[in-house]
Design goal:
Elements (H helix, E strand, L loop, with lengths): L3 E5 L4 H12 L3 E3 L11 H11 L3 E4 L6 H6 L1 H22 L2 E7 L22 H16 L4 E5 L2 E2 L7 H10 L5 E3 L3 E2 L2 E2 H13 L4 E4 L7 E2 H14 L10 E3 L20 H6 L7 H16 L1
Parallel strand pairs: 1-2, 1-3, 3-4, 4-5, 5-10, 6-9, 7-12
Antiparallel strand pairs: 8-11
Bound molecules: NADP nicotinamide-adenine-dinucleotide phosphate.
């Protein structure tokens, strides 16, 4: 009989891609819909894990909007911290491997430079606070769990990120602007899926940074690379200019964002041998997939 995987959040940007990759890899996939297993109900979450017979559980579910978390911090805490802890504890009982996705936003973003897994955490918004609490509770409940921190998820054409949206806007002839004074590294959902399955199948435990390699880029820089890729791939005659915005000037950002959260993927790629592309390569691949899907 094939291995069974339980994926929470399979309708999300990362979860959709993980579900396809797991099916491709021959897993029997269980993917409960939000309505069938609301994560605010920790007991229901735990019963599902205990009874489903999965050898691997991956949590891609989260309240990932910063403003949504600020609007309801209690719900953010239940979904982003309490539910993952319940998953971890249930996995401890069943013996299933558990991979939980977290975020670069938990890191202290005051200073430039890439951060490894030992870097200091300093959540500065409700989202990051709930995600950091989730990391700690998961590892306390199940020390053999993997907490995979990802950043700027892109590469699912069904759920476009700012990279795909920049190309869409350029193709529609719309004006473009992007934040130039905040940096991180993009992560292709396909690479997260590949890494999550490899980490779930291996024996690594603890926090691991899963993102593209290289120097952190601003949203403006990523959008610039995306338009260059669209030109090289023949979708645009020339790359239009992108206005540079300041983080503090984005009107719909009510919550503070950390400025420097680029992560080092050296442990993933070096110690564990799971290859990741460089940031520019990621952007080009994501643009190619988006253009192919648009037809
Ligand atoms: N997106 C990014 O750029 C980014 C960056 C860094 C880290 N991350 C982390 O990466 C992971 C995946 O992010 P993502 O962007 O793929 O997420 P996403 O697209 O926002 O999807 C979230 C998933 O969680 C489900 N969900 C939300 N609230 C729920 C609830 N109360 N009960 C049950 N299910 C619920 C959603 O279901 P419905 O859609 O049906 O509600 C959806 O399937 C998360 O841990 C996130 O914190 C994301």
């Amino acid at each position: 009989m094939g291995r069974r995987i339980l994926i929470f959040g399979a309708s999300g940007r990362t979860g959709q891609v993980l579900q396809a990759a797991a099916e491709q890899a021959g897993y029997e996939v269980l993917a409960p819909a939000h309505a069938d297993c609301p994560l605010e109900q920790a007991e229901q979450v735990s019963d599902l894990v205990l009874g489903c017979g999965a050898q691997l559980v991956v949590n891609c579910a989260a309240i990932s909007g910063l403003e949504a978390c600020a609007d309801d911090p209690l719900q953010a805490h239940l979904v982003n911290a309490v539910a993952p802890a319940a998953m971890a504890l249930a996995c401890r009982h069943t013996g299933a491997r558990f991979v939980h996705l977290s975020t670069d936003y938990v890191l202290c973003g005051r200073r430039p430079g890439v951060k490894d897994e030992s870097a200091r955490c300093r959540p500065i918004n409700w989202y990051a606070e709930s995600k950091r609490e989730g990391e700690l509770q998961v590892l306390e409940a199940l020390p053999t769990a993997v907490v995979a921190r990802v950043s700027w998820v892109c590469g699912n054409p069904q759920k476009p990120s700012f990279i795909e949206s920049s190309v869409a806007k350029a193709l529609a002839g719309q004006e473009l602007a992007a934040v130039a004074d905040k940096v991180s590294l993009p992560t292709d959902a396909a690479d997260i899926a590949r890494a999550a399955l490899a980490l779930g199948e291996g024996d690594y435990a603890g926090i691991i940074h899963v993102c593209s390699g290289g120097e952190p880029l601003s949203w403006w820089h990523c959008a610039t690379l995306a338009l260059q890729a669209a030109v090289e791939q023949g979708a645009l005659p020339a790359a239009p200019a992108i206005a540079q915005q300041k983080l503090d000037e984005v009107p719909f950002f009510r919550e503070p964002r950390p400025r420097y959260t680029g992560m080092s993927n050296a442990r993933l790629t070096g110690q564990l041998g799971i290859a990741m592309p460089g940031a520019a390569e990621t952007v080009a691949a994501v643009v190619r997939r988006y253009l192919e899907q648009r037809g």
